[in-house]
Specification:
Elements (H helix, E strand, L loop, with lengths): L10 H7 L1 H7 L3 H10 L5 H9 L3 H15 L1 H13 L8 H6 L6 H4 L8 H17 L1 E2 L8 E2 H4 L5 E4 L5 E4 L4 H4 L11 E6 L5 H13 L9 E6 L14 H7 L11 H8 L4 E6 L25 H10 L7 E7 L9 E7 L4 H11 L3 H12 L2 H7 L2 H17 L12 H17 L13 H7 L1 H16 L4 E3 H6 L12 E4 L10 E4 L2 H14 L10 H7 L7 H8 L14 H13 L5 H4 L5 H25 L2 E4 L2 E5 L2 H13 L2 H10 L4 E3 L9 H9 L6 E4 L6 H8 L6 E5 L7 H14 L4 E3 L7 H13 L5 E3 L7 H13 L5 E3 L6 H12 L7 E3 L7 H11 L7 E3 L10 H10 L5 E3 L7 H11 L7 E3 L7 H5 L7 E2 L2
Parallel strand pairs: 5-8, 5-9, 6-7, 7-8, 14-15, 15-16, 16-17, 17-18, 18-19, 19-20, 20-21, 21-22, 22-23, 23-24, 24-25
Antiparallel strand pairs: 1-2, 3-4, 3-9, 10-12, 11-12, 13-14
Helix pairs in contact: 2-5, 3-6, 4-5, 5-6, 9-12, 18-33, 19-20, 20-21, 22-24, 24-27, 25-27, 27-30, 29-31, 30-32, 32-33, 33-34, 34-35, 35-36, 36-37, 37-38, 38-39, 39-40
């Protein structure tokens, strides 16, 4: 029929002509009938006739018949309903375009009420999502804070499948977008981060934005799950995908024909899922061996449904966001995009302070105390710890005249003791006093709250032993807790694990709080043998390889696994051990003596100290060592980081000295160990006792500017300083310049891929000038322009020791290249130089080539990914003919043509030193490349 204008053909005739198409595609009939009734085109008798019709297709025929009987206006309104309620009639939208439908002005004033089950469910889901996510519930019980009043972004780094940085998210909308997708066939956006870094609150923010229609997405359905829910199902329990979606979110109303679920199956791209806390699932692996769930109609164990959703076996094309702790890796073929949460930057922390403290006096007081304590700032880079510190400050400052934040030696144990003091003080002071207490006595608060504290601790330990983060009302009662104890704040009721929405399940405020209380239980227990405090140390010492079993099974089929629970990680056990070290430290002896027998306390302290000493010696002896670059190197394992944390929590100078003495290597490699800024204090606590010089490689971590401040006392001993890929700004370089120039022992400085600008480059230039032993400087992938390049070039020109400089991926341009050219002329020591990816054109290339003719020292020169063309070829050819000693010249991915390369090839016949000129990726065809087959040193591959 082609396109038919509404004016040329009546709507009645259109319905007649397209009757067969409408009968086959028209769904959601109730919405049509409801609106025709409301506007008076249908009467109740008409509706009853339609209802009595046996099949859906016959009902459509009856509706069309009745509408056409009512005349042209009814037919026009019928089409207008389809136009207005587009989500319900998505299959008919192409038809509307085909008939070139545009409603008349008279029709646009007609009211259409969307009673379609799909649209109703969308509205209901948004309403309930808004209700559930508008307040921050995860960190408090008695007080609620609006999400928008306190939510603060964190540093969100995009990673590829090799965990290499691909930049940073600028806003949450980018999380769902195509930017930084490394696997288009993947189904899952994987968000990783340490405990307390803000994974759950990030998902809550996304959910809240969607509920308010402020998230840029076409998705009309959003289903949220917490992964620990899946550990509550019995082994034999099976449910359908439909029940999993609706029972644990909300059910559609008035949907007798199952239209909502059918829509989800047909249009999975309209659905977003969030699964929070994958690392917490502790289901038996045998469940994974069940055949994959490929049919949405089949019933299966909920864990099987989860895995099938993540792998794309179910609802392929839907968007899934999955969070897990750092270190839990999955198969790349499953992951679409990967994001690592890095915590608060200094700017984020300032924003959070302003949101948390509305009063200017409080803001200034907190800011001053944070500025005075780099370690406290480092701890505050983790949002959970920051919240605890700020919450404790506000509460205790309100209650007492003299409260201030702890000094620089604050530990994680101190933080959780503060939180516990706040919670226990609620029972001690049920009504707020009008007069502040002049003195604060934590021991009195803990003594007064010892009974509930002991019960909460017992409950936490029981859960830790069985690997559970959820407790029932019966378990709570069995531990001696009463209804009056529950509002203190340690626990919160959860109903998402139970479709009845009754508060039959509880969980601790956060996994780390459960770990802290479990450690408290080990200390307080006077019945068990004193050696029982070492239980979790023993478990952590067992070697457990990482497992990607869930996804191996999901994709590759099943085989019998070695591990009983591949989902289980032991980070919660490490945290428990860490808190045990803190509670049994000398610093907290005076408090703990009020809670348990001093004799037993001393015995447990001695046992722990003896165990740590033995463990440290054993660990250091077992570390892999090798010699290279005249240094004895040791690459520590991630478990060593937990040992350092435990040593710092103990505050034991003896153990720290013993550890420092046990590090016999000259070079420690801590790369890819997930070190964050707060760990730098623990590292410094040990390294400050080392007398010999030491090289330290901390590449690819998350230490940030806070961490550099904490390491300041140790820079006097460092010969190798490698902090590549660590989110450092110029303020870190300022500290490095001050310390390294003071002690002048540094030989290697690695600062690749940070946030260093020209101001930072000027400070690095100072280090190059003033440190006579400095040989290697790596500054690639920073934000250095020609201005910074000039500072660096002048410093390099003066240096007699430097031999390797890396500047890949900055923007120094031709001006920067000319500055480096001057530095290269007659330089006595520089052998390796990379100026790749710096926007250098032939102008800069000519300057460099001209200068290098007067340099007999440089051996390796990289100008990869610049903009050199044939204009630079004559001078480069002259450089080659000069036979200066240059052995490797890389010109990959420039703009040379066959003419320019002919000049280089001819010059090579006069050169005996050059081993290769790499010219891959220039502007030559394969046929033109073959012309140079005889000159094997001119390499195209």
């Amino acid at each position: 029929m082609g396109q038919v204008e509404e004016a040329k053909l009546s709507c009645l005739n259109i319905l007649t002509y397209h009757r067969e198409l409408l009968v086959s595609r028209l769904k959601s009939l109730q919405c049509i009938v409801d609106n025709l009734l409301a506007c008076g085109f249908f009467c109740e008798e008409d509706a009853e006739i339609i209802q009595r019709t046996a099949t859906k297709t016959d009902q459509v025929r009856k509706i069309l018949e009745l509408v056409q009987c009512k005349g042209e206006e009814a037919c026009t309104y019928f089409i207008y309903i389809i136009y207005k309620v587009c989500d319900a009639y998505i299959d008919l939208q192409p038809w509307l375009k085909e008939i070139n439908y545009n409603p008349s002005e008279d029709m646009t004033v007609m009211k259409v009420v969307n009673t379609d089950p799909i649209s109703r469910f969308y509205g209901k889901l948004r309403h309930e999502m808004s209700r559930d996510t508008s307040f921050i519930m995860s960190y408090g019980q008695q007080e609620e804070t609006r999400l928008e009043d306190l939510y603060t972004d964190t540093v969100m780094e995009l990673l590829n499948d090799n965990n290499e940085s691909m930049g940073f998210l600028e806003d949450l909308d980018q999380l769902l977008g195509e930017h930084a997708v490394f696997n288009p066939q993947g189904e899952t956006i994987y968000i990783q981060g340490d405990a307390g870094v803000g994974k759950s609150i990030l998902l809550q923010k996304l959910q809240n934005l969607w509920s308010k229609k402020e998230l840029r997405t076409d998705a009309i359905f959003f289903f949220k799950f917490r992964c620990r829910m899946f550990s509550t199902f019995k082994d034999t329990e099976q449910i359908s995908l439909r029940d999993l979606l609706f029972k644990y979110n909300c059910y559609p109303d008035h949907d007798p024909d199952n239209e909502v679920f059918d829509y989800i199956l047909r249009f999975p791209e309209k659905v977003i899922f969030t699964f929070d806390g994958y690392d917490e699932i502790q289901e038996d692996v045998d469940l994974i061996n069940v055949a994959e769930v490929a049919s949405p109609e089949d019933k299966a164990h909920p864990l099987q449904l989860l895995l099938s959703l993540l792998c794309g076996k179910l609802l392929k094309g839907s968007q899934k966001l999955l969070t897990a702790r750092t270190g839990v890796e999955f198969q790349s073929r499953v992951i679409r995009k990967k994001v690592a949460l890095r915590g608060f930057s200094p700017a984020h922390l300032k924003t959070y302070i302003n949101l948390h403290f509305k009063e200017q006096d409080y803001r200034e007081l907190v800011s001053v105390q944070l500025d005075a304590s780099p370690h406290l700032c480092g701890l505050c880079s983790i949002p959970l710890f920051c919240w605890i510190i700020f919450k404790s400050f506000r509460h205790l400052h309100t209650m007492h005249d003299s409260f201030e934040l702890p000094e620089t030696c604050i530990t994680l144990t101190d933080i959780f003791l503060l939180l516990s003091e706040v919670f226990l003080s609620r029972s001690a002071s049920p009504a707020p006093s009008l007069v502040k207490k002049r003195t604060r006595c934590p021991s009195e608060t803990f003594k007064a709250g010892l009974k509930p504290l002991t019960a909460f601790a017992k409950l936490a330990l029981q859960g830790m032993k069985r690997g559970s983060f959820i407790c029932s009302q019966e378990e709570i009662t069995a531990c001696g807790l009463t209804e009056e104890d529950l509002p203190l704040g340690f626990l919160r009721a959860v109903c998402e694990y139970d479709a009845s929405e009754s508060p039959g399940a509880f969980e601790f405020l956060h996994m780390t709080l459960q770990c802290f209380l479990a450690a408290f239980a080990l200390v307080l227990d006077e019945q068990a043998a004193a050696s029982s405090i070492l239980k979790f140390f023993t478990e952590c010492s067992r070697k457990r390889g990482r497992s990607c079993l869930p996804f191996n099974f999901c994709i590759c089929g099943s085989s019998k696994p070695n591990e009983k629970k591949p989902f289980t990680t032991n980070e919660h056990l490490h945290f428990t051990n860490l808190f045990l070290c803190g509670l049994l430290s000398k610093a907290h002896t005076s408090l703990m003596e009020h809670l348990i027998s001093p004799v037993l306390l001393k015995k447990k302290q001695s046992l722990l100290k003896s165990y740590l000493s033995t463990s440290v010696k054993s660990h250091l002896q077992g570390l892999p060592q090798h010699k290279g670059d005249k240094r004895k190197k040791v690459h520590v394992l991630p478990n060593f980081l937990w040992i350092l944390r435990c040593i710092f929590e103990t505050g034991s100078k003896d153990i720290a000295q013993m550890t420092a003495k046990g590090i016999t290597a000259d070079f420690i490699k801590l790369g890819y160990c997930n070190v964050y800024s707060g760990d730098c204090t623990a590292l410094n606590f040990v390294l400050q006792h080392r007398r010999k010089l030491l090289g330290l490689d901390m590449d690819n971590n998350n230490i940030s500017d806070f961490g550099i401040k904490q390491l300041k006392p140790s820079f006097c001993k460092m010969t190798v300083v490698r902090f590549c890929v660590n989110h450092l700004s110029d303020s870190s370089i300022e500290i490095l310049a001050e310390e390294l120039c003071k002690h002048k022992v540094v030989e290697v400085l690695g600062l690749y891929s940070n946030h260093i600008t020209d101001d930072g480059a000027k400070l690095v230039a100072q280090i190059i000038e003033e440190c006579p032993k400095l040989q290697v400087v790596k500054l690639g992938k920073n934000k250095i322009t020609s201005v910074g390049a000039k500072y660096l070039a002048r410093a390099i020109q003066k240096s007699k020791s430097i031999f390797d400089v890396g500047m890949w991926g900055n923007t120094i341009g031709d001006e920067g290249a000319e500055a480096f050219a001057e530095a290269l002329r007659h330089h006595p020591s520089l052998t390796n130089l990379s100026l790749s990816a710096n926007g250098i054109t032939s102008k800069g290339g000519k300057s460099l080539a001209e200068a290098l003719k007067q340099n007999s020292c440089l051996r390796i020169f990289w100008l990869v990914q610049n903009e050199l063309c044939d204009d630079a070829a004559p001078l480069l050819a002259e450089l080659v003919r000069a036979n200066t000693g240059l052995s490797h010249l890389w010109l990959i991915n420039n703009q040379f043509t066959v003419d320019g390369l002919k000049q280089l090839a001819e010059a090579l016949s006069h050169n005996t030193a050059l081993k290769e000129i790499c010219v891959k990726g220039n502007q030559l065809s394969e046929e033109e490349q073959n012309e140079f087959r005889e000159e094997q040193r001119l390499r195209f591959h």
